[in-house]
C-alpha cells in the first residue's frame, strides 16, 4: 500500500490553508454533553465534521458550534447562530446545491438554511451569522430514543429539500422540507412491506428486512436516471435490496433526464420476450410516459449551476401506491469468506460518464465493488403479475431477455491483508465530484484512499461504446485498484480520532483536508489528470493573434465542431469477425458426412441441407455486405473529415487576420473617441457659462423687481385656471367657517336663554360657599350606590331589548 507524505514545502495555497484560524482548536473538552464517550462507543460512530462549498467555503463543527469561512478572503472565520444545538455534532452534510446544511447527532437532526454563497464575506464586524434552522422529526427520534442510522439528500427533489432517513426502528422516512419538517411525507416499514417480490438466492417471499444499517442512491448524476431513482438498502447480513422508483412529491430534473429514462424503458420493452417481465415493463412505460407528457407544460427552475430544470410529479394513480422492496440481489461472484462476517456500509461511487458503482464493506475489512444492474424494473405493490420467471430455469428455449436481479462483482479487496489490527468499525467517506476513487475510514483512526481509474476508465469506455468483448474481458479478469494510506500507522493508540474529510481543488492540484480531534492534516497532491472532454467527440482549436497581451483575451477564438469519426471503430472489427475463415468453414454440429446428406433424397436430409445454406452461406453473405457497406461509409466519412479540418484551418487563419485588422481599427476608433471627449468638454464649458449668466440675471431681477418677464399664452391659461381653482377652494372653506360660527353662536344663545347656565352658576357658587361645611357622607355614598344600581338596571334592560330587536330582524330576514 502506498502512502501520502505531505512535504513542508508547498504552494502558497497550502500555506494559506495551514495557517487559517478556522482550524484552531478550543481548549474546552466535551464533558458538558451527556454522551457516552467511552472508546468503544466512539469507535462505533462515524464522524464527518467538515464540508466544503463551491471549492472555497468551509464549514467545520467544533463541539456544538459551526464555524464557516471563505478561504479566499482573509484569515478569519464566523459562527452560525444556532442556539438549539445542545449536543456534540457528529456529522455535517450539504445538499446538492449547497443551500441546506444537515447537522447530525445519533438522536438529533437539525437543518440550517444557509444564505447564498459569498455571505461570509459580509463587511459586518460581527462574528455571528444569523441563519434559519429547524429540527427534523423530533416526534420520531428525539422523543422516542430511536437512533438515526443514516440520512441522505435526494438529488432529484425540488429546491433540494428532500431528506431521506434510515432509523433503528426499521423505518425509512422521507421529509419534504417545503411542506413539513416534523412529519414525514412518506414512510416505509421495512419489517412489514406487504406484497414483496423477493428474488436472487431466496426463492420464497420474504416480507421484511432485518437489521438495515445503510442506504444509498444508485447515482447522484442526472445522466444516470435509473440510478438516481433507485434507493439501495444494505443490512447487517450483507444483503442488498432496492426501491425503484423512489421519488419525492416533486422532482426537478433536466428534460434530458426524462428523455433518457423514456428511451431506456422503451428499449427494454422492445427487447423483452418474457411475458411476465413484459407486463411489468408495460406498467413502467405507462409511468414514464406520464412524466414525459409533462415536459411541455412543466414549471421551470434554475439551479445554482445555472442549469434549467423542469418540475414534474408522479401520476396520481401511482402517488398512493407503496413500492415493492426488490431483492435481495445476487452478487456474482460472491467471496465465500464474507458469509462469516457482517456488512458495515454502502455508498455509490462515480465511474466516469453516466456510470456509477456500488461499494460495500464488511467487518473483516473486505471491500466489494459492484456493477449495478442496467435493466432494473420499477415495481409497485399492486402489480397484477409477479415475475415468476425469475427463478424458472426449465424453459426449453433460452430467453436472454429475462430480468436478472444480479449485481456483478468487479473486485474484492480485503484490507486485513494490509496487516491492520482490527475492523470493529469500517465506513466509507463519499465525496462529491470524485471520480474513480473513494475513502475508507477504519475505526476512526486510519484513512485509506482506493482508486480504480486504471480499469474504471476501460469499463466506462466499453459500456458507452457497447463493446461487448472488452466488457467481458474486464468483468472476467482479476482487477487491481490502488490503495494509498492517507494517515494512520501501525500504532493505533497514539492516533487522533478521525473527524472528517473534504477536498479542495486549486491550480490543477488537489488539497486533501483531513480533520482530526486535535490537529488538521492538509496534503497537497497533483491531479492524476485534468478535467477533459472526450477528444473523440470534439476538437478544440485556439488562436491568439500577436497583439498586446492585455487585449489577448478579447481576440481568442474557440472553434468547436463535431467530429465525423466519433463512431467506434470496434464495430468494423466485430463485423469482420463474423466473416472470418473459421465461421465460413464450420460444418454441422452433428458431425455427419456432408456428401452422404447431399446424395440422399429423404426429407430430413433436405432439411439439413436447407439449414446449412441458410445458417452458413446466407448469413455470411449478409455479414460480408454489412462489412463492405460499413467500410465504404467509414472511408467517405474520413474524406469528409479531412475536408472539414482543412476548412476549419482556413477559418482559423482567417480569424487571426481578422483579429489583427480589428486591432488596427481599434486605434482609429480610439482617436475618434478622444475627439468626441474633447468636444463634449467644450460643450460643458459653454453650458456652464450660460448657466452662470442666467443665474446672475435672475438675481438682478429679484433685487430690482423690474418688468415682468414675458410668458406664453399657455402659461397665462395655466395661471388663470390655477386662480379659479384657488378662489373656488377658498370660497368653499369660507362658507364652511361661517356656517360653523353661526351654529356655535346659536348654541351659546340658546343655553343662556334657557336658564340652565344660571342654575349651574348658582349651584357652583353655593358649592364654593358651603365647601367647608360638614356633609353626611354616608348619605351621599348611599345615593351614589342607588344611582349606580339604577344605571346597571337600565343597561341590562337596554341590552335585553337590543337582543329582542336582533331576533325580530333575523326572523324578518333583514
From TrEMBL:
It is found in: Nucleus, Nuclear pore complex. The keyword Transport applies. GO terms for molecular function: structural constituent of nuclear pore. One of its GO terms (biological process) is mRNA export from nucleus. Residues 632-693 form a coiled coil. Keywords: Coiled coil, mRNA transport, Nuclear pore complex, Nucleus, Protein transport, Translocation, Transport. One of its GO terms (cellular component) is nuclear pore. Its main location: nucleus. The keyword Iron does not apply. This is Uncharacterized protein.
Amino acid at each position: 500500500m502506498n502512502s501520502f507524505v505531505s512535504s513542508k514545502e508547498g504552494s502558497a495555497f497550502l500555506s494559506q490553508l495551514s495557517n487559517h484560524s478556522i482550524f484552531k482548536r478550543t481548549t474546552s473538552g466535551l464533558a458538558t454533553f451527556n454522551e457516552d464517550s467511552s472508546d468503544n462507543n466512539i469507535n462505533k460512530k462515524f464522524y464527518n465534521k467538515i464540508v466544503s462549498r463551491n471549492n472555497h467555503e468551509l464549514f467545520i463543527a467544533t463541539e456544538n458550534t459551526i464555524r464557516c469561512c471563505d478561504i479566499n478572503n482573509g484569515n478569519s472565520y464566523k459562527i452560525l447562530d444556532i442556539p438549539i444545538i445542545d449536543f456534540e455534532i457528529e456529522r455535517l452534510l450539504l445538499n446538492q446545491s449547497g443551500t441546506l446544511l444537515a447537522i447530525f447527532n445519533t438522536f438529533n437532526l437539525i437543518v440550517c438554511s444557509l444564505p447564498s454563497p459569498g455571505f461570509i464575506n459580509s463587511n459586518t464586524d460581527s462574528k455571528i451569522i444569523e441563519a434559519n434552522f429547524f429540527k427534523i422529526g423530533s416526534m420520531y427520534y428525539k422523543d422516542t430514543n430511536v437512533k438515526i442510522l443514516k440520512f441522505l439528500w435526494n438529488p432529484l427533489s425540488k429546491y433540494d429539500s428532500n431528506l431521506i432517513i434510515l432509523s433503528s426502528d426499521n423505518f425509512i422516512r422521507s421529509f419534504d422540507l417545503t411542506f413539513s419538517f416534523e412529519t414525514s411525507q412518506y414512510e416505509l416499514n421495512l419489517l412489514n412491506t406487504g406484497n414483496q417480490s423477493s428474488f436472487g438466492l431466496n426463492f420464497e417471499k420474504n416480507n421484511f428486512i432485518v437489521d438495515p444499517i445503510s442506504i444509498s442512491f444508485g447515482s447522484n448524476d442526472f445522466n444516470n436516471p435509473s440510478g438516481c431513482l433507485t434507493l439501495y438498502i444494505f443490512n447487517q447480513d450483507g444483503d442488498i435490496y432496492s426501491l425503484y422508483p423512489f421519488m419525492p412529491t416533486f422532482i426537478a430534473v433536466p428534460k434530458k433526464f426524462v428523455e433518457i429514462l423514456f428511451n431506456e424503458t422503451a428499449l427494454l420493452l422492445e427487447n423483452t420476450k418474457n411475458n411476465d417481465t413484459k407486463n411489468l415493463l408495460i406498467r413502467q412505460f405507462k409511468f414514464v410516459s406520464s412524466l414525459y407528457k409533462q415536459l411541455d407544460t412543466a414549471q421551470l427552475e434554475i439551479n445554482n449551476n445555472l442549469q434549467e430544470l423542469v418540475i414534474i410529479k408522479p401520476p396520481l394513480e401511482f402517488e398512493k401506491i407503496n413500492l415493492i422492496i426488490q431483492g435481495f440481489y445476487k452478487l456474482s461472484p460472491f467471496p465465500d469468506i464474507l458469509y462469516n462476517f457482517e456488512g458495515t456500509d454502502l455508498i455509490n461511487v462515480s465511474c466516469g460518464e453516466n456510470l456509477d458503482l456500488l461499494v460495500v464493506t464488511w467487518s473483516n475489512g473486505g471491500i466489494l465493488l459492484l456493477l449495478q444492474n442496467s435493466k432494473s424494473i420499477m415495481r409497485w405493490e399492486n402489480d397484477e403479475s409477479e415475475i415468476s420467471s425469475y427463478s424458472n430455469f426449465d424453459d426449453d428455449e433460452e430467453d436472454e431477455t429475462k430480468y436478472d436481479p444480479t449485481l456483478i462483482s468487479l473486485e474484492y479487496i480485503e484490507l486485513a491483508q494490509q496487516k491492520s489490527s482490527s475492523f470493529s468499525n469500517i465506513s466509507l467517506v463519499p465525496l462529491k465530484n470524485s471520480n474513480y476513487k473513494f475513502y475508507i475510514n477504519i475505526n476512526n483512526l486510519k484513512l485509506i484512499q482506493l482508486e480504480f481509474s486504471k480499469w474504471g476508465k476501460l469499463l466506462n469506455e466499453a459500456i458507452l461504446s457497447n463493446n461487448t468483448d472488452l466488457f467481458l474481458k474486464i468483468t472476467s479478469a482479476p482487477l487491481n485498484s490502488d490503495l494509498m494510506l492517507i494517515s494512520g500507522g501501525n500504532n493505533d493508540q497514539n492516533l487522533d480520532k478521525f473527524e472528517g474529510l473534504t477536498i479542495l481543488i486549486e491550480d490543477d492540484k488537489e488539497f486533501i483536508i483531513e480533520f482530526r480531534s486535535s490537529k488538521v492534516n492538509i496534503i497537497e497532491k497533483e491531479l492524476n489528470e485534468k478535467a477533459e472532454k472526450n477528444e473523440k467527440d470534439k476538437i478544440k482549436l485556439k488562436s491568439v493573434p500577436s497583439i498586446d497581451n492585455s487585449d489577448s483575451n478579447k481576440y481568442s477564438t474557440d472553434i468547436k465542431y463535431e467530429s465525423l469519426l466519433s463512431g467506434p471503430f470496434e464495430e468494423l472489427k466485430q463485423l469482420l469477425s463474423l466473416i472470418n475463415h473459421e465461421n465460413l468453414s464450420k460444418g454441422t454440429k452433428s458431425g455427419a458426412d456432408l456428401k452422404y446428406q447431399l446424395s440422399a433424397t429423404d426429407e430430413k436430409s433436405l432439411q439439413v441441407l436447407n439449414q446449412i445454406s441458410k445458417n452458413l452461406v446466407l448469413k455470411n453473405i449478409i455479414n460480408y455486405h454489412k462489412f463492405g457497406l460499413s467500410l465504404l461509409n467509414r472511408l467517405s466519412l474520413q474524406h469528409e473529415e479531412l475536408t472539414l479540418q482543412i476548412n476549419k484551418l482556413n477559418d482559423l487563419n482567417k480569424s487571426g487576420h481578422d483579429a489583427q485588422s480589428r486591432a488596427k481599427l481599434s486605434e482609429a476608433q480610439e482617436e475618434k473617441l478622444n475627439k468626441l471627449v474633447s468636444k463634449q468638454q467644450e460643450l460643458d464649458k459653454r453650458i456652464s457659462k450660460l448657466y452662470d449668466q442666467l443665474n446672475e440675471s435672475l438675481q438682478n431681477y429679484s433685487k430690482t423687481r423690474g418688468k415682468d418677464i414675458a410668458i406664453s399664452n399657455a402659461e397665462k391659461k395655466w395661471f388663470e385656471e390655477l386662480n379659479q381653482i384657488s378662489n373656488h377652494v377658498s370660497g368653499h372653506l369660507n362658507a364652511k367657517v361661517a356656517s360653523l360660527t353661526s351654529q356655535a353662536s346659536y348654541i351659546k344663545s340658546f343655553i343662556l336663554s334657557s336658564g340652565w347656565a344660571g342654575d349651574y352658576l348658582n349651584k357652583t357658587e353655593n358649592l364654593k360657599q358651603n365647601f367647608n361645611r360638614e356633609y353626611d357622607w354616608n348619605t351621599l355614598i348611599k345615593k351614589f350606590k342607588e344611582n349606580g344600581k339604577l344605571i346597571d338596571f337600565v343597561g341590562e334592560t337596554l341590552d335585553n331589548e337590543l337582543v329582542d330587536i336582533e331576533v325580530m330582524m333575523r326572523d324578518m330576514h333583514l
